[in-house]
Backbone:
């Protein structure tokens, strides 16, 4: 998905691409003219060249200090992801990662049921009104031992959307071109929050994002997109596990809040 800033960046890059001689020369001329104009403006502003040199030196020092501070923070900034015992309240908006496999056994199906009418349809009216399903771009069947477990994530997303669309005001499939690129999922989730606000008037607190399904990279992208305090995350926690470590599907699962926090790690002694 091409975003506005990406398209703008590509347009500017053409002016500095030597493979396009005319635009390249025009870019050099514009850069030189703008540079001289800024210099003349600053010189008129501060009146004397030596004062301009001092200001330039101060700006350079501040830039170096800012760069060093960013590096220091990157080395020491820790990210904590903690599952909470707080009960998740059903939301009108849900963003969910969809995995492959038998559709009705996926975590996405359980998350949608919970926020729609409840795990056992205990609510007469659905709480969920707006649904976004994120899945890999591949369609059809994936490689698996049995046809029942071979549905791709996109095929599952299509089926879940069709199943719940009569109860919803909006159900949208969001295709992730590269499921191993966290940036693509990050940008998709960011775009969904913008769309929800502008198009549907939803506040961020009215939406919850479920990262149980999908690949690890998709999970990372969604978690990073939901670091703002107003954006809630959830994980579908199985109630019971089988001896081999797999979730017991008959026992079901329930959503749990996941809190993302940042902290500064101490330096080495």
Residues:
């Amino acid at each position: 998905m091409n975003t506005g800033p990406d398209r703008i960046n590509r347009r500017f890059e053409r002016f500095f691409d030597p493979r396009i001689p005319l635009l390249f020369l025009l870019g050099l001329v514009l850069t030189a003219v703008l540079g001289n104009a800024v210099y003349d403006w600053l010189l008129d502003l501060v009146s004397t060249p030596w004062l301009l040199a001092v200001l330039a030196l101060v700006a350079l020092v501040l830039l170096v200090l800012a760069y060093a501070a960013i590096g220091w923070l990157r080395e020491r900034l820790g990210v904590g992801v903690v599952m909470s015992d707080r009960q998740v309240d059903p939301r009108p908006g849900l963003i969910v990662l969809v995995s492959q496999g038998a559709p009705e056994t996926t975590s996405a199906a359980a998350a949608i049921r919970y926020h729609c009418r409840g795990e056992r349809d205990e609510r007469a009216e659905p709480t969920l009104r707006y649904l976004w399903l994120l899945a890999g771009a591949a369609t059809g069947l994936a490689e698996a031992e049995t046809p029942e477990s071979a549905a791709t994530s996109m095929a599952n997303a299509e089926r879940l959307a069709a199943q719940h669309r009569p109860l919803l005001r909006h159900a949208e499939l969001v295709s992730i071109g590269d499921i191993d690129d966290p940036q693509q999922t990050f940008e998709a989730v960011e775009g969904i929050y913008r769309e929800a606000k502008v198009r549907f008037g939803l506040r961020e607190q009215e939406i919850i994002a479920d990262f149980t399904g999908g690949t690890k990279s998709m999970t990372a992208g969604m978690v990073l997109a939901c670091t703002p305090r107003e954006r809630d995350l959830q994980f579908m926690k199985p109630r019971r596990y089988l001896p081999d470590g797999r979730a017991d599907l008959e026992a079901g699962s329930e959503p749990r809040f996941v809190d993302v926090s940042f902290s500064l790690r101490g330096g080495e002694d």
Confidence is low (pLDDT under 50) at residues 14-21, 140-150. Residues 11-76 form one domain. The two ends are 45 Å apart (CA to CA).
